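Let us begin with a simple case.
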Amino acid sequence: MAAAIPASLEATIRDLAAKDAIKEVIYRYSHGIDRRDWKVLNDVFWPDSRLEYGLYNDSGAGFAGIIEKVYGELKIDVTQHFIGNCIIRVDGDKAIGETYVRAFHRVPRPADGVYEEVIMGARYLDNFECRSGEWRISVRKVIFDWFRLSPYSADWTEGAFGINAATAHTGKPGVVERPEFTALLR
């Protein structure tokens, strides 16, 4: 006869599973916004969620559409949101977290269209809720800690270390390199 699992171990396993599911939500956010997969981006937020981004302070239900519009109007064609330190505390079907992010944006200057690099260091202060077994963001407040603006330095025709547009795969937002993987995110 197998020994019963102590309640404290069950709670630990449940919390670890919740933290893993929550981290997946955070990673899917970065994937959605950087790959321009607006459905994936939209689905990390509960429809009744609240977001405080500075440029957008409203419901999570409208966020993907606003970002798609802003990126299009400003011609932001390359972004990369890299997730760093992530601290999550779970309490039943609710959780809070603080996640560090470094976000790269390739942005043309409005005056002349010359590209610049905008790199931001920020933190996501999130509340999460699990509804019907699914974790999503219910509240997100973004704290911008620092940013750097500099001339755009990459040229894939030249590349670096022999890696260039002619010798390697170079990513482009909106291009799905692995459709079978992207389908698993939805």
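The second case is a distinct protein. As before, the sequence precedes its structure tokens.
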Amino acid sequence: MSWQLHAAAVKGDLKWAQRALDEGASINEQDEIGWAPLHHAVAHGHPEMVAFLLDHGAGINDRDGNEGYTPLMQASLSGHVDVVKVLLKRGADVHRRDKQGRSALMAAHQIGASEIIELLEDAGASPTRDEEEALAANVSTGCLLVVLPEVLGIVALIVWGILKLFSVL
């Protein structure tokens, strides 16, 4: 039954999720990659599903079984502003850390999500001294912490254009 709830969370299908719960699905059961349904809803950017799962007892601060991400960390890393808003409104802990000691605030910094950074800071998040040093080092060297898929797509397009220009393709 729980696989159905996981699939419904991925799709954002509230009716399917309700049916899975009615048939006995476990709200916090982790799948083979260590994610509960809430982690899937968060990662796929479904704020209505996130609210639904929280209403039915999903653990708002539960860590995944892989990196130890909380839903707020996952939402911050995925850049889903509306999901971050739902989680913060529902009381997500901005101070929780993953297995490596990273916070939701650092996840937002990794992808340059300024609106999420502002939301987290307004909710009381602040970087540790180590995080401040890491952020300063990345700014001063011009390094990116994470390469976004969109950037990779642009790079691939540029490389394709160059190869096409020189008749390699």
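The mean pLDDT is 85. Residues 2-127 form a domain with the Serine Threonine Protein Phosphatase 5, Tetratricopeptide repeat fold (CATH 1.25.40.20).
Keep these points in mind for the review questions at the end of the chapter.
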